[in-house]
UniProtKB/TrEMBL annotation, chain A:
GO terms for molecular function: histidine phosphotransfer kinase activity; protein histidine kinase binding. This is Histidine-containing phosphotransfer protein. It is found in: Cytoplasm, Cytosol; Nucleus. The keyword Hydrolase does not apply. Keywords: Acetylation, Cytokinin signaling pathway, Cytoplasm, Nucleus, Two-component regulatory system. Histidine-containing phosphotransfer domain (HPt) contains an active histidine that mediates the phosphotransfer. Functions as a two-component phosphorelay mediators between cytokinin sensor histidine kinases and response regulators (B-type ARRs). Plays an important role in propagating cytokinin signal transduction. It comes from Juglans regia. PANTHER family: PHOSPHORELAY INTERMEDIATE PROTEIN YPD1, PSEUDO HISTIDINE-CONTAINING PHOSPHOTRANSFER PROTEIN 6. The keyword Ion transport does not apply.
UniProtKB/TrEMBL annotation, chain B:
Coiled coil: none annotated. PROSITE patterns: RESPONSE_REGULATORY. It comes from Juglans regia (English walnut). The modification 4-aspartylphosphate is found at D85. This is Response regulatory domain-containing protein. Residues 35-150 form the Response regulatory domain. Keywords: Phosphoprotein. SMART domains: REC.
Length: 156, 153
């Protein structure tokens, strides 16, 4: 009976993952992260995603800070922040966030401040959605691990 | 087919991490001990590039800046491969590559960026890189490069 809890949670994780893939929020690069997780680094995916959260929030603050400057004109600096955000998003499979960065970059290259502001808002929303969903995924995973561990302790 | 945790890791479960990472990477065996330097300002990219290369048996060091990379080479460190981001703070990727090549380094240098433009490609190749790819590191393209380097030693 206890085992059913772990199985059900695994099914929940797979459903959530399928949804995120279907929505284009994540791509196969996210699954590749798990290839690097093993018993010597059992929390690798979680740690890497937390690094992504930390970096992304800093980049979003930097981008908003730049655009809020009264005499903002440093589009080159904005491009550098966007480049980093694109690179990190691609690297963890955050497809939709990466795509918004590409559009943001295009507005930045045209020195289009209004376009950049619109893109920033979209980026903040996309990032927020992604973060919430990844937290949900990791919560289910934590519950699954607990449920699986409580099932038959002697089997392992 | 919808992605599932089971489909990720040859049946051992994705998040569980209860298998050695070598299940996939054991196929990569090299004749020589290979070394790589990763140069990237972003911690996430630096960690992932380093861990991907290590998983394929390449001893890898990662630094944050072009200056740190140049200092490392100037101090006598040698690497078979260098993976370097285009956009680095203060000293750019192309400038770092120019200085590394000027010191006589014969490493295979792979330029990386989040979004390739024609101008970036021209600048980076003019600086002395051998290959240029968009992130992320993908075994489909970096494993053949490692194999080529291994065969040339």
């Amino acid at each position: 009976m206890l085992g059913l809890g772990a199985d059900r949670l695994r099914a929940d994780m797979n459903r959530l993952l399928a949804l995120l893939f279907h929505q284009g929020v994540l791509d196969e690069q996210f699954l590749q992260l798990q290839q690097l997780q093993d018993e010597t680094s059992p929390n690798f995916v979680c740690e890497v995603v937390n690094i992504y959260f930390h970096e992304s929030e800093k980049l979003l603050r930097n981008l908003r800070g730049l655009l809020m400057e009264r005499d903002f004109s440093d589009y080159k600096k904005m491009g550098i922040h966007l480049n980093q955000f694109m690179g990190s998003s691609s690297s963890i499979g955050a497809k939709r966030v990466r795509n918004v960065c590409v559009a943001f970059r295009a507005a930045s290259e045209q020195n289009n401040r209004a376009g950049c502001l619109r893109a920033l808002e979209l980026l903040e929303n996309e990032y927020c959605y992604l973060k919430n969903k990844l937290h949900e995924l990791f919560q289910i995973e934590q519950q699954r691990v607990l449920a699986a561990g409580a099932r038959y302790p002697m089997q392992n | 087919m919808a992605p599932t945790i089971e489909s990720v890791n040859q049946g051992n479960g994705g998040f569980e991490g209860n298998n050695k990472r070598s299940d996939r990477f054991v196929k990569a065996t090299w004749k020589n001990k290979l070394t790589a330097l990763v140069v990237d300002n972003g911690e996430l990219c630096r960690v992932l590039e380093r861990e991907n290369l290590r998983a394929y048996g390449v001893e890898t060091v990662a630094v944050e800046t072009g200056e740190a990379a140049v200092e490392l080479i100037a101090s006598g460190s040698t690497f078979n491969l260098i993976f370097i981001d285009m956009y680095l703070p203060t000293m750019s990727g192309p400038e770092a590559v120019r200085q590394i090549r000027a010191m006589g380094a014969r490493s295979k240098i792979i330029g990386l960026t989040a979004f390739i433009t024609e101008k970036d490609e021209q600048d980076f190749f003019a600086a002395g890189i051998d290959e240029f790819f968009e992130k992320p590191l993908d075994p489909d393209w970096f494993v053949p490069i490692i194999r080529e380097v291994d065969n040339q030693i």
